[in-house]
Design brief:
- The complex is a heterodimer of chains A (220) and B (338).
- By secondary structure, chain A is mostly helical.
- Chain A has a domain of 149 residues: MetI-like fold, CATH 1.10.3720.
- In chain A, 80% of the residues lie in helices and 0% in strands.
- In chain A, helix 1 runs antiparallel to helix 2, helix 1 packs across helix 8 and helix 8 packs antiparallel against helix 10.
- Chain A is elongated, with a radius of gyration of 20 Å.
- The model of chain A has no long low-confidence stretch (mean pLDDT 92).
- With 338 residues, chain B is of the alpha/beta class.
- In chain B, the strands form three sheets. Chain B has a six-stranded mixed beta sheet, with helices on both faces. A four-stranded antiparallel beta sheet of chain B has the order 2-1-4-5.
- In chain B, strand 12 and strand 13 form a beta hairpin.
- In chain B, helix 4 packs across helix 5.
- The longest helix of chain B is centred in the middle third of the chain and has 18 residues.
- The chains are: A mainly alpha (220), B alpha/beta (338).
- The interface between A and B is medium-sized, with 25 and 29 residues.
Chain lengths: 220, 338
């Protein structure tokens, strides 16, 4: 059953899965991190409360997050085509993955920054720090462990979502599992791909929390 | 010109239904090089007052002048510059948990845009001042409370401020550590000539290092002056409460009502004569000790005692004269003895 062709296909699947997961996490943070910072800063007890800006960000996050990923994937096809030129393949899957992840990331970031001790922020203000300095040098630095844990969780979730890319011919391990395991009844291949997904998830989780522990100086 | 000048400072907080007046027309001048204590019960408005000095709290009315400059007239940028010239330490230390000791001390310099190398040199010098040279690379979580406050003090001094604000800086520390931190503040005051403002609810802190004191109660400044003067003869009820901790009131007042009650205040020139015993021996009449309390104020014994005198106006006035001859001040207590 596992001839050279299938092994190669699975290897390509691993590559595609990692590609989709990591690139969409990265771009997800490009959008989600600033949005999360804005949400935290403009909230009622934030550094610079602003009802209107918070309201808009809050609304967008809630709307996007309430659409199931599979639906988002289909809804965004015209947009995806506009951005990457085609609506199928791994790269095309990244677009809806990013759109799906960004508001989630924003919420995770907002919550992480909220954990920063208000006293430390006050101390920085007393030193004459500007709001931008407080965000960059105090909040993001003090919350880095929580932020990194957020990255790990997000990556895990996107790994799972990337498996749905089969719907749009996206490739990756999830796609293989569905096509061979479900449509062709080749249970062996499905089990292998699922085991590989579990392994990748474990590696991401392990690396993520290990690194988070490494950079945490709060307790020894 | 005073280093810090607070004029008619009022701060109101607008809550849902009503307005709370946290500070009510406070007037205060703090001179250069002073160690100035601001004391009050919790909720009296002390923290709001100290935060008004560096405009972390903007006053609703009134002015705060630092070296004659009204903070209200400054732009956001100028205000930040001014804040960097005023150091501040806190009850909770507020160190950056993810930075080590030396980076914490360098932090205000980093914010002000100083070169890293110069900042490190300055930080090392300050570590020497606060006696923590060997902890340069340690993280706050590895330090004790007293050590954390020392780091916070070094951090507050990094920008060579002219003023140091201490917000309940020793309230989270045990008595020995409090003592060492207060000694450090005193040394810093002498070494750098820095003006120190201390907010506290602990009378012992004021008596230990402050030269001047202001007492606030419910947002109102009820008494201010030199520490020994205020202690010798507290005019306000709040001051008396803080000094003699009247709160531990256990006397069944009415049962102890004598014909005439007098308050004796012990001061510098009180002799070591056993006063009450000699009074009784001298007059052959019993006096009733209704209350007695002493405090150590700046190394000197200060205290008050309330005596119930026996009947007979003539006898009473002779007794008072006798006490006054011994250099003690006597006042009649009309209200309930507490």
């Amino acid at each position: 059953m596992f001839d050279e062709k299938i092994v190669e296909m699975i290897l390509v699947g691993i590559k595609d899965t990692l590609y989709m997961t990591l690139v969409s996490t990265a771009f997800g943070y490009v959008l989600g991190l600033p949005l999360g910072i804005i949400l935290n800063v403009t909230r009622k007890d934030g550094l610079k409360p602003n009802r209107v800006i918070y309201g808009i960000g809050d609304f967008i996050c809630n709307i996007v997050r309430s659409v199931p990923f599979l639906i988002l994937l289909i809804l965004l096809i015209p947009f995806t085509r506009l951005v990457v030129g085609q609506s199928y393949g791994s790269t095309a899957t990244i677009v809806p993955l990013v759109i799906c992840a960004a508001p989630y990331i924003a919420r995770v970031v907002e919550a992480s920054l909220n954990e920063v001790d208000a006293g430390v922020i006050e101390a920085a203000r007393a030193m004459g720090a500007s709001n931008l300095q407080i965000i960059l040098k105090v909040m993001l630095v003090e919350a880095r462990v929580s932020l990194l844990n957020g990255v790990t969780i997000t990556t895990g979730i996107l790994l799972g979502y990337s498996a749905m890319s089969g719907t749009v011919g996206g490739g990756g391990l999830g796609d293989i599992a569905v096509r061979y395991g479900y449509y062709r009844w080749q249970t062996g291949i499905m089990i292998v791909t699922v085991l590989l997904l579990i392994l990748i998830f474990q590696i991401i989780q392990h690396l993520g929390s290990g690194f988070a522990r490494h950079i945490d100086h709060r307790k020894r | 010109m005073s280093e810090i000048e607070i004029k008619e400072l009022t701060k109101r907080f607008q809550l849902k239904e009503h307005t709370v007046t946290a500070l009510d027309h406070i007037n205060l001048s703090i001179e250069k090089g002073d160690i100035f204590g601001i004391i009050g019960m919790s909720g009296a408005g002390k923290s709001t007052l100290v935060r008004s000095i560096n405009y972390l709290e903007q006053p609703t009315e009134g002015q705060v002048l630092i070296d004659g400059v009204d903070l209200a007239g400054l732009s956001e940028k100028e205000l930040r510059k001014k804040r960097s010239e005023i150091g501040m330490i806190f009850q909770g230390f507020n160190l950056l948990e993810q930075k080590n000791v030396i980076d914490n001390i360098c932090f205000p310099l980093e914010i002000a845009g100083h070169k890293k190398k110069a900042a490190r040199e300055k930080a090392r010098e300050l570590l020497k001042t606060v006696n923590l040279e060997e902890k340069e690379k340690a993280y706050p979580s590895q330090l004790s409370g007293g050590q954390k406050q020392r780091v916070a003090i070094a951090r507050a001094l990094a920008t060579n401020p002219k003023i140091l604000l201490c917000d309940e800086a020793t309230s989270a520390l045990d008595p020995q550590t409090t003592e060492s931190i207060l000694q450090l503040l005193k040394d810093i005051n002498e070494k750098y000539g820095i003006t120190i403002v201390i907010i506290t609810h602990q009378m012992s802190v004021v008596t230990r290092i402050c030269k001047k004191v202001a007492i606030i109660e419910n947002g109102v400044l009820v008494e201010k002056g030199a520490v020994d003067e205020v202690f010798e003869d507290p005019k306000s009820e709040a001051a008396r409460e803080l000094i003699f901790e009247k709160k531990n009131d256990y006397l069944p007042v009415n049962d102890l009502k004598a014909d005439k009650n007098i308050r004796i205040v012990f001061s510098d020139n009180s002799s070591y004569e056993p006063l009450v015993a000699n009074l009784i021996l001298n007059f052959g009449k019993p006096v009733n000790i209704l209350k007695a309390d002493t405090k150590n104020v700046g190394g000197k014994a200060r205290g008050e005692m309330i005596l119930g005198l026996p009947e007979g106006e003539d006898l009473q006035s002779r007794m008072i004269d006798w006490i006054e001859e011994r250099g003690l001040s006597v006042t009649e207590v009309k209200e309930d003895v507490r």
